[in-house]
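Example record

The entry below shows one chain as it appears in the dataset: sequence first, then structure tokens.
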Amino acid sequence: MSHLKAVFSDPGTVPLPQSRLDFSDMHANSQFFRAGDDDDWTVCTRCENYRPPRAHHCKICKRCIKRMDHHCPWINNCVGERNQKFFLQFLVYVGALSIYSIILVITSWVYPCDECNTNLKESQTRMLHTVILLVESALFGLFVLAIMIDQMCSILHDETAVEAVQQKGTYRPHRRKFALLADVFGRGHPFCWLVPCSTFQSNTRKYDTPLLSHDV
């Protein structure tokens, strides 16, 4: 369920304006400018659209994504503001299943089945199967653990992968860690953070305002 939600949920696509805006001067000068002096809104030269702070253009999706972290081939979707929670849940559950598989394999070696067929060929096949399962579970477990740690560091330091490459640093250095986690997982109880349900509230977002609220 978490994987499906991460795949099919909108990662935070910046909507396009109803009428096409004229950015011909910007293309001619090849400049990247701010939408206003008192905020961090910018202009995407590819979408030809205003975009809110921390939004970046995805070359694969060909759209600007709010608080984009990266485009993940596992979900064939961007990891952004609206689906990062589901992506982290997917990593947690895959990691838990990997640990569960490793425990089952080790248990089967420590406490072998006395009632199983003692045929040599079947025993060798069973042993080969458990070894392959153990290696696969260990590799997947380490892989998702590395990604999960990277995602948690990104949230707690309030710096997406794109911002880290651009060396922009922490976006909100004085914000509490729990509040940063709540921005991703929702305002509900922490025990509910692993439940794959949507808790996004657009009215709590500072920059979820109409894109044409600025004077054009």
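Notes for this example: The longest helix spans residues 120-156. Residues 30-38, 201-216 have pLDDT under 50 and may be disordered.
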